[in-house]
Phosphate/phosphite/phosphonate ABC transporter substrate-binding protein
Amino acid sequence: MQPKRFAPLLLRSTIAGLLATMALQANAELAPRFTDADGNLVADTPTDESQWVDPDTLVFAYTPVEDPAVYAEVWAGFLEHMEQLTGKRVQFFPVQSNAAQLEAMRAGRLHVAGFNTGSNPMAVNCSGFVPFAMMAAEDGSFGYEMEIITYPGSGIETMEDLAGRSMAFTSPTSNSGFKAPSALLTSEFSLVPDEDFTTDFSGSHDNSILGVVNRDYESAAIANSVAHRMISRGVVNEGDYQVLYTSQTFPTTGYGHVYNLHPELAEQVKEAFFTFDWEGSALQAEFANSGEAQFIPITYQEHWEVIRTIDEANGVTYDCN
């Protein structure tokens, strides 16, 4: 499993510096109700079998997007495959925000999910999320880049030109939509959000991209994988915005299950991800535009190390109250 090519050097050097000055292993911050006896940073399956959940209907949620109905159709074939392997009804849950998705799993209403890159640490530590898969290309490469974009004619030609202007972030839990650009702008350009430029939260990458294209926002921090899919669907065109900066490659959405799912059911859920036939599927049609063609196994401990480092650089703590 190889990450995709690394794009421009600036944020890569930022992260390298952070890794050099911080512990490579972020401290575990699991909520007190979880245990981590094996030290892999995710919640263990309860030893008390009475705490296992084995629902008649499995609830699945994909990370929030502008139009959840589109993705209900995209995931329909995959969820049918999961139904066949688990013998359960599988329901698509169209979440409207990262907070709603996190709370649904924490409260036991969500069993299987794809959490976006930046919200994985909160999902793991506060909601008992156990990520085990990620989308990847046929050659095993994976990931996406954070981009900072503006619209043609905005007068913003360089990162330094952002001083005194405005930028849209997506949500505080988003890696490419908030955490990574905040670290970059502060450490490399001495631009502090809400001091050197004004900020808005759009709620999603789709909203940020459309906001820039429609000139509601002067600039935005986005995940380019989302932009590629929007371009492929004809929602926006390549010339509708210009890219000011492209980051290193980050892990993309992590897929997994809640920690107390019955172990046999959890294994069947994993099997559904790793045996799904992408050829001719709606998943292939949607995600091939950003390079994905399969699910590959991952671990939170290894693949989210750089994200935990960014969180530490931003002073993020996983408050589970």
